[in-house]
Design goal:
With 255 residues, this protein is α/β, with parallel strands linked by helices. Helices cover 38% and strands 24% of the residues. It folds into two domains: 166 residues, 3-Layer(aba) Sandwich (Rossmann fold); 83 residues, Rossmann fold (3-Layer(aba) Sandwich). Helix 3 packs across helix 5 and helix 6 packs parallel to helix 7.
Length: 255
């Protein structure tokens, strides 16, 4: 469903992602790991369209989307949750999710951009937004402004927006970052539920190796922008190149 071919980006003389080729199939969760500065988030940015590639291609469902901007990639089925929350802070929690649903339907040629008129005609979308908030355990905070939520709840709301977009590819960039110990299981349960669908690709950038071990069907390791290991979790984690390039540096990285 998703493939990168020789994907590369240069910043001046520095090659941040260096000819990375990977294919990601539906029904799999792939964790992309590596030490700080390895190119993980930059690789995500190239796939989702936040950065233009210097070389190489991104294909979704066999179609070349390399030249498309981020918004058009979202309409094609790429969903991205960021390391830092991307919300509408002055809208309510429920309104944030409703806008994600409206954007999804507009991208599919259903519904317009008139926020208030559209919602009068689509009470089913309102019901869907309520259901999504219940799924992420934010139903009791539906009418609060997004800006008033604590950090952990903002991360859960961002996952809710991603679920509402209903993409073919879910991309999570450190989804548990900044969360308390009590909040982490909620997000991990949501990701497990998405994984159980078997019809979507899930990509995960994560520093916490216990999360990586528990969720991953496959691990891809980047180091200095290059793909240095790719395979089944236990084999990749045990490989000498990973022990040296990633695990050996884990103590120096933020948790």
């Amino acid at each position: 469903m998703l493939e990168t071919k020789d994907l590369t980006i240069r910043f001046g003389g520095h090659v941040a992602v260096d000819h990375v080729s990977c294919r990601f199939e539906p029904g799999t969760l792939t964790s992309i790991v590596g030490p700080n500065g390895a190119g993980k988030t930059t690789y995500f940015n190239l796939i989702s369209g936040q950065l233009p590639a210097s070389e190489g291609r991104v294909l979704l469902g066999g179609q070349d989307i390399t030249s498309l901007p981020a918004a058009q990639r979202t309409h094609r089925g790429l969903g991205r949750a960021f390391q830092l929350t991307q919300l509408f802070p002055n809208l309510t929690v429920h309104e944030n999710v409703r806008l994600a649903i409206q954007a999804r339907e507009a991208g599919r040629g259903r519904g317009g951009l008139d926020f208030f008129r559209v919602w009068l005609d689509h009470t089913d979308w309102i019901a869907e937004a309520t259901q999504v908030l219940a799924q992420v355990r934010l139903a009791d905070k539906a009418q609060q402004p997004a800006a008033s939520l604590p950090h952990g709840d903002q991360r859960k709301l961002e996952v809710a927006l991603l679920i509402a977009l209903d993409p073919k590819v879910f991309m999570f960039d450190e989804p548990t970052a900044g969360m308390s110990v009590d909040e982490v299981p909620v997000v991990l349960d949501l990701i497990r539920g998405l994984k159980a669908r078997k019809d979507v690709v899930i990509l995960l950038v994560e520093h916490k190796m216990d999360v990586v071990r528990e969720l991953s069907d496959r691990i891809v390791v980047l180091h200095n922008g290059q793909l240095v290991a790719d395979g089944e979790p236990s084999a990749v984690i045990a490989s000498p190149v990973v022990q040296q390039a990633y695990l050996g540096m884990a103590a120096e990285e933020p948790a």
